[in-house]
Design a protein that fits this description.
The complex is a heterodimer. Chain A contains five helices and 14 strands. Chain A is of the alpha+beta class. The model of chain B has no long low-confidence stretch (mean pLDDT 90). The chains are: A alpha+beta, B mainly alpha.
């Protein structure tokens, strides 16, 4: 297995993984999407809310704020407190805001961390208040996975694409340039009287070039043992942290399978 | 009512970009250009910006503001 980082810009990470099974890459993608434990606000105690937004709307919005930290937290269901919630499985955030002017935006940066967890993005508007209106609350963040609820989803996209292979038969190609105009990704070009692919990884495998070519000299296939994984974090963890967290989750699953096999009675 | 915190479809955080989007579009800029600049590239996220009506501003007009002593 050979890993190459293609680019890491605009909050996205694209890695090319060569010599890998497609099923393995899919397992990684699915774990990143839905099985990485991250903290998210689960309970909100409203102390006072004199604004126009209902308590439920505010609590729902707060759940979606990506949170940072909480590495030492454990799942509430596995905790000694038996699901009641304690400092081992919960982190508290508080907020008390009284608006000084009309149309005052209460941003997520006003959340004060009492535990190990804090808002990853401080610019998210939670509510809007008029002068004198107050929003005071206590929120409790717990670990969870996106399988339970989308608010625990640590990425906005996690995509695996096979490496596209655009093969051009230079002998039969008559440089009619029909494919050059038709390609939606604009990756075909005529250079020095030869049809060339400028950036093969951009190809979406749509095969428009194949169907428009009257000579049949262009063929689009893919190599499924080389895959490009694209992920975009929502801010709680970095993209690199997410990939390594996904391998931890997969290893844990494998070791729990091994433990279960050990407990089987010996075959007679 | 108020801009959703995340995109309904992909889950990208979009609420933090709303104020900038609204301010730039009010200046007469093309929404498509503003969204590109804000790095909102997928159409699932873009449609939320384009179709959102910020009703919370209208609703706030009907709420009572407190006076200087904090009394309503």
């Amino acid at each position: 297995m050979d890993v190459e980082i293609l680019d890491a810009t605009d909050g996205q990470l694209r890695v090319m993984v060569r010599g890998v099974d497609p099923t393995f890459m899919n397992a990684m993608r699915r774990i990143i999407m839905s099985e990485i434990p991250v903290p998210s606000i689960e309970l909100v105690y409203i102390i006072e809310n004199t604004g126009v937004l209902y308590d439920e709307i505010i609590a729902h919005r707060m759940g979606y704020i990506p949170l940072k930290g909480g590495e030492a937290l454990i799942f509430t269901k596995d905790c000694e407190c038996q699901g009641k919630g304690c400092p081992r499985c919960e982190a508290i955030l508080t907020m008390d805001v009284t608006a000084s002017e009309n149309s005052f935006k209460v941003l997520s940066g006003r959340l004060k961390a009492e535990g190990s967890v804090f808002a990853a993005n401080t610019e998210i508007p939670i509510a809007e208040l008029n002068a004198g209106q107050r929003l005071a609350l206590e929120a409790r963040a717990r670990l969870g996975t996106a399988k339970q609820h989308a608010k625990w989803q640590p990425v906005s996209i996690a995509v695996v694409k096979y490496e596209p292979q655009v093969k051009i038969d230079q002998k039969t190609c008559d440089l009619c340039a029909l494919c050059v105009d038709e390609c939606p990704k604009k990756i075909l070009e005529i250079k020095d009287k030869r049809l060339v692919v400028t950036s093969p990884l951009v190809c979406s495998l749509c095969k428009v070039c194949e169907s428009i070519c009257q000579k049949g000299s262009i063929k689009v296939t893919y190599n499924d043992s080389n895959a490009v994984l694209t992920i975009e974090s929502t801010g709680g963890m970095t993209n690199e942290e997410l990939v390594s967290a996904a391998t931890d989750v997969l290893l844990k699953k494998c070791s729990s399978l091994r433990d279960a096999l050990k407990e089987l009675p010996e075959a007679a | 009512m108020i801009i959703p915190v995340r995109c309904f479809t992909c889950g990208k955080v979009i609420a933090d970009k709303w104020d900038q989007f609204r301010a730039d579009v009010a200046k007469g800029e093309n929404p498509a250009v503003v969204l590109d600049r804000l790095n909102v590239k997928r159409y699932c996220c873009r449609r939320i910006f384009l179709s959102h009506v910020d009703l919370v501003e209208d609703v706030l007009q009907f709420s009572v503001s407190a006076n200087e002593e904090g009394k309503i």
